[in-house]
Amino acid sequence: MSMADSKTEKEAVLNCVHLKSGDTPIIVAARHGHGDLMNFLILRGVDIEQRNKDLKRALHEAAANSHLDCVKLLLSQNAEIDCLKRADWTPLMMSCTKMNIGVIRELIQSGANMRLTNKDGWNCFHIAAREGNTEILNYLLDCCCDIWDSCSKNG
Fold first, then answer.
1. How far apart are the C-alpha atoms of 12 and 8, rounded to whole Å?
2. CA distances from 51 to 28, 62, 94, 111 (A)
3. What share of the chain is helix, strand, coil (3-state, %, to 5)?
């Protein structure tokens, strides 16, 4: 095996794709909070913007699963903060379904757009209100006092 063949095999492993889900190693690492593995992959040139079949990226998974260190790592690598997955959900929207205000703060302080809406017209405030965490709702209102004043597609 030549050096070129060895390099190609390593790149194939680092960027392998699960046939059913489309998940890649960096997406799975973000989902499970394996920041060291994510850093290893990033240092070897893995694209942090890889998408699975639901169009989720590593940032969606890290935010949805409350892995603050992984969110910070991805943002430090200039991950697209307002990237959309299927049904137009951003990482901020996904983080608002959880009770981890630290991830929500990090995303907002890093410039996440609080006014974006998903396919149903819901913004991050609507999603957080559905979950009922008053600390998160108050924080969102502190960041954008009129975020509540919007209507989803179903009223």
1. 6
2. 11, 13, 16, 21
3. 50, 0, 50
Helix residue ranges per DSSP H, 15-150: 25-31, 35-43, 58-64, 68-76, 91-95, 101-109, 124-131, 134-143
Encoded amino acid at 109, one letter: Q
DSSP conformational letter for 121: S
- What is the pTM for the complete model shown? 0.89
Displacement of CA 125 from its chain's centroid (Å)? 17
Q: Return d(Cα 35, Cα 155) in angstroms, integer.
A: 40
Phi/psi for 145 (5° steps) reads -65, -20
| Token reading at 56 | 């989720």
Residue by residue, pLDDT tens for the chain (155 residues) are 444 455 666 666 777 777 788 899 999 999 999 999 999 999 999 999 999 999 999 999 999 999 999 999 999 999 999 999 988 999 999 999 998 999 999 999 999 999 999 999 999 999 999 999 999 999 999 999 999 888 777 76
